[in-house]
Amino acid sequence: MEVEAFSQKISNVLSKGKFIIPDYQREYDWDESEINELLEDLEDVKPDESYFIGHMVFEGKFTGNEFKVIDGQQRITTLTIMLSVIRDLFYTKQLNNLGDGINDKYIFAKDVDNNPFVILENKMPYPILQSYVQSVPDKKDLTAQPIKSGEKKIIKAYDHFNALFKNKSEQELKDLRDRILNLEVIFVAASDKVDAHSIFMTLNATGKDLTPIDLIKNQIFSLYPKQPHIDEPNDTWNKIIDNIDEKGVKFFNNYWSSRYKKISDSRLFKEFYKNIIKAKVPVKDFLKQILKDSEVYRKITNPSEDDWSGQNEYQIYLSINAITNVFGIEVSNAMLISLIREYENRGVSLAYLVKALNTIEKFHFTNNAICSNRSSGLDQFYSKYSRELLNEVDKNSKHIVIDSFIKSLEEKLPKKEQFEVNFDSKLYFSSKSTKQRKLVYYVLNKIEFKKQNGNMTLHNMSIEHIYPEAPKSNVWKPLDEKHIINIGNLVLLDAGLNSKIGNIDYQKKKEIILKESNLISTKEVLNNNIDWSEKEIAERRKDLVEYCFEDIWK
Question: Could you give the CA distance from residue 372 to residue 327 in angstroms, rounded to a whole number?
Answer without folding.
Answer: 10
